[in-house]
């Protein structure tokens, strides 16, 4: 059929034909070469080939597709920009991917009541860009915000550097429209009601990682720009001193807009990448601290932060002299993950949470894991809220290194769970950490959750195999435990 | 058996005997005269006689009681101080009330990490009182805070005047231990994890009005006292001007700690009660506005608030000159509900939410309802977050007035729902507003919620008849609709 556009040839598969009927011929990908890009999201250690990818344009299309797929028993996954870091949008194999990237409009903007209604494919950063000239912004700022969609943010309950003061996505969602796995469309919220009647389904759906329904419309809070902001950079020779400064700042009653820490390997990375700041290479860590609010209050807080940092043996400390310097510091920090590519062929981002006060001890244990698996580990830390990102550097072309990286990552999460923390702060569980859910949940706690999933998603056609340990794996784990008991 | 303590006589009832076995003889009330006080909570228009009231002292006792009651199929209700305003702890008749008031200890206080662990019977105000000398407080402040328990607050997701800036109870809960209707004990949260893995069960349980489990331990956030606070009182001749001032303050980017409004009938009440301030009797409404934070920022915000109020035709405006005056203004405001007793034999509090901008229109409609039912209605309004409390004044001794008050209340909620608001802002649905859930939820939305209830509470033994319309009533409604279609 040389010279003919390949998509014009009608496929033999009846399911593909029916999907084309619903969303249009040009909106269905089904050839292997077109599907390869959809084998995984930003978590690349697990891949699966979807049956098809379809691009929907309306809530009705989503509902019609879901109803149809129910009749033929084919599983399906909603996908935004595919920037997720835990495999939440990665197929196990054979699913239909429902891409929401063409549902990308802002439907309504209401500055007076501080809210906007967007479709799920609307890009995070675009919202702030479209209202910043009027003095407003949207608070959740994941590092991928230039590409990730707000629908994806809702499903992963995404955070970001500035979520210490302003909260993660769930704190900024006023309403959702979503399609249940039955095909029914339900709406929740809309108005800024302090305590919504009934069960908090809005909270339940937010962060459910695409396992309870497909979000088709989102009402978000927008915030007024703070009057001013100031940013401090503090260099430390000892990571214990830097950690103590973090605790002391919070104890002083200051809640900075952001309070970030990077260790020496992470610094080596960002200084080798696109936006070097000139950080000293011989420090143990730096803190990047930003305060915002009413001008009159900012100076007082900065004075107090400087005092706290000095009391904790800071080597050098400085306030950004202008917006350009502040911008450079942040560009450098936000390159954190990607910059690992400058010092390692591959890397795996982990995402544990720990009590702030346990940081020195946890870093020591991560250092032991690094030695055990012979892999370098950099640490980037949303220090204010205890969210640690160990970045495990490896080379996938060396046989066995991917597996070692994966095991090292799991051990890092175990360390976090063992000090009373958690296995994910903002990246979600997805495929990557479903087995590690057992580090923090008992059987009863897991059952309470899988029961909820079964109520929404009784046939398990929506995003199967995510978030919870797979039955096969549970059995394995249980069997091991039994062995220990028996022997 | 004259002269003998009546509780010493063993009851014949096998269930009562078994309950005594679990919690101790002295911890079970079963005689009618002892049970009367438990026929209702703070919502007095609906009453039911429990089978027994038992006082538990540990999580294990709660679990044992629940497991036992499951075997005999007897329904049960958890109850704190009984200050709820929607009948959430009111029996339908025949339930065992599990009172948590003797589980009232603080188990752990961790000022460094800003958290406290309390039992469910711990009284709200006691928490702030016990840490205020160290410079900390617990934020949610319902008007009943001198009596209500934190366990009750969790179940009702309670708010308060200062929740505008600091959020309602759900924003202050870090962890929960609760007993499921199966008797299993599960724990959620504990550490301040920004995005908890798995479904947000903590959010789901919070505000579930005692229908999903019995809370037995709570980890709450505690906050550092603000450096300073200032309070403004503004008198208005026109309620539209007062409403516009509220919108303009928020639009200016100020989030006051509290932003309250009271209308002329509410003022008549509070000026007749225990803490008269000397408010003019001929104004349409006053605003009570409090700003807190870092001293340096407060003056700027107060200046801006004064300007906004003046631009909206304020009659008189003043800043509290000292803590004593500030305290008097707040005592007067917090008497709001109770003060209705000074001007009416009975009153019914309603609890609607509306978009702030629709206030004048909603108040006009409430005024029409007042005329229609020939009942005076006062209005107290958490204006900042749109939470309106119409207080319907009536005399229960006049035949038919209770019913008229109840109908007027329902119509007020319909008005709130019709402008895009909600039927409850902070008091919950309980028995009172279960029928009104249909004002805001579709069948599909209701089913999604009742399915969740069924998963947790399959036998419907835990707090039956609350939160959702009763099947009987649904059927009635559906039948009416069918009639319309057929005719």
UniProtKB/TrEMBL annotation, chains A, B:
<dbReference type="Pfam" id="PF01565">
    <property type="entry name" value="FAD_binding_4"/>
</dbReference>
<keyword id="KW-0274">FAD</keyword>
<feature type="domain" description="FAD-binding PCMH-type">
    <location>
        <begin position="46"/>
        <end position="225"/>
    </location>
</feature>
<dbReference type="InterPro" id="IPR051914">
    <property type="entry name" value="FAD-linked_OxidoTrans_Type4"/>
</dbReference>
<dbReference type="InterPro" id="IPR016164">
    <property type="entry name" value="FAD-linked_Oxase-like_C"/>
</dbReference>
<keyword id="KW-0285">Flavoprotein</keyword>
<dbReference type="InterPro" id="IPR016166">
    <property type="entry name" value="FAD-bd_PCMH"/>
</dbReference>
<protein>
    <submittedName>
        <fullName>FAD-binding protein</fullName>
    </submittedName>
</protein>
<dbReference type="InterPro" id="IPR004113">
    <property type="entry name" value="FAD-bd_oxidored_4_C"/>
</dbReference>
<dbReference type="GO" id="GO:0016491">
    <property type="term" value="F:oxidoreductase activity"/>
</dbReference>
<dbReference type="InterPro" id="IPR016169">
    <property type="entry name" value="FAD-bd_PCMH_sub2"/>
</dbReference>
<dbReference type="Pfam" id="PF02913">
    <property type="entry name" value="FAD-oxidase_C"/>
</dbReference>
<dbReference type="GO" id="GO:0071949">
    <property type="term" value="F:FAD binding"/>
</dbReference>
<dbReference type="InterPro" id="IPR006094">
    <property type="entry name" value="Oxid_FAD_bind_N"/>
</dbReference>
<keyword id="KW-0560">Oxidoreductase</keyword>
<dbReference type="InterPro" id="IPR016171">
    <property type="entry name" value="Vanillyl_alc_oxidase_C-sub2"/>
</dbReference>
<dbReference type="InterPro" id="IPR036318">
    <property type="entry name" value="FAD-bd_PCMH-like_sf"/>
</dbReference>
């Amino acid at each position: 059929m040389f010279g003919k556009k390949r998509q014009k040839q009608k496929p033999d598969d009846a399911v593909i034909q029916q999907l084309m009927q619903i969303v249009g011929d040009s909106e269905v990908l089904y050839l292997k070469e077109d599907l390869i890009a959809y084998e995984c999201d930003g978590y690349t250690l697990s891949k699966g080939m979807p049956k098809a990818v379809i691009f929907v344009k309306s809530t009705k299309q989503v509902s019609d597709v879901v109803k149809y797929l129910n009749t033929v028993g084919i599983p399906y996954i909603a996908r935004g920009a595919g920037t997720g870091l835990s495999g939440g949008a990665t197929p196990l194999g054979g699913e239909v991917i429902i891409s929401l990237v063409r549902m990308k409009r802002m439907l309504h903007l209401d500055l007076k009541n501080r809210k906007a209604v967007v479709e799920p494919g609307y890009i995070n950063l675009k919202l702030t860009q479209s209202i910043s000239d009027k003095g407003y912004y949207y608070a959740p700022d994941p590092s991928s915000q230039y590409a990730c969609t707000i629908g994806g943010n809702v499903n992963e309950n995404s955070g970001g550097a500035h979520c210490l003061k302003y909260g993660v996505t769930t704190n900024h969602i006023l309403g959702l429209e979503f399609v249940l796995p039955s095909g029914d469309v339900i709406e929740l919220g809309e108005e800024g009601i302090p305590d919504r009647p009934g069960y908090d389904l809005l909270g339940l759906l937010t962060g459910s990682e695409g396992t309870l329904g497909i979000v088709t419309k989102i009402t978000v809070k927008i915030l007024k720009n703070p009057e001013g902001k100031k940013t401090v950079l503090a260099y430390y020779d000892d990571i214990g001193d830097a950690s103590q400064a973090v605790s002391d700042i919070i104890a002083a009653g200051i809640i900075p807009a952001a309070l970030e820490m990077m260790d020496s390997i992470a610094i080596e990375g960002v200084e080798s990448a696109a936006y070097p700041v000139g950080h000293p290479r011989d420090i143990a860590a730096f803190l990047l601290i930003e305060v915002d609010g009413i001008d009159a209050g900012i100076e007082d807080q900065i004075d107090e932060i400087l005092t706290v940092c000095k009391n904790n043996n800071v080597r050098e400390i400085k306030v950004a002299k202008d917006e350009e310097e502040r911008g450079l510091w942040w560009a450098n920090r936000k390159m954190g993950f990607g910059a690992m590519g400058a010092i390692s062929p591959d890397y795996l981002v982990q995402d544990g949470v720990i009590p702030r006060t346990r940081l020195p001890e946890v870093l020591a244990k991560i250092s032991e894991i690094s030695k055990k698996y012979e892999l370098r580990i950099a640490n980037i830390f949303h220090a204010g809220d205890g969210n640690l990102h160990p970045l495990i550097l490896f080379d996938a072309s060396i046989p066995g290194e991917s597996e070692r990286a994966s095991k090292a990552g799991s051990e890092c999460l175990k360390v976090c769970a063992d000090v009373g923390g958690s296995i994910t702060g903002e990246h979600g569980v997805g495929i990557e950490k479903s087995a590690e859910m057992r580090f923090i949940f008992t059987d009863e706690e897991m059952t309470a959750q899988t029961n909820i999933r079964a109520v929404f998603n009784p046939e398990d056609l929506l995003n199967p195999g995510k978030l919870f340990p797979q039955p096969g794996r549970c059995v394995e784990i249980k069997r091991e435990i039994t062995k220990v008991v028996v022997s």
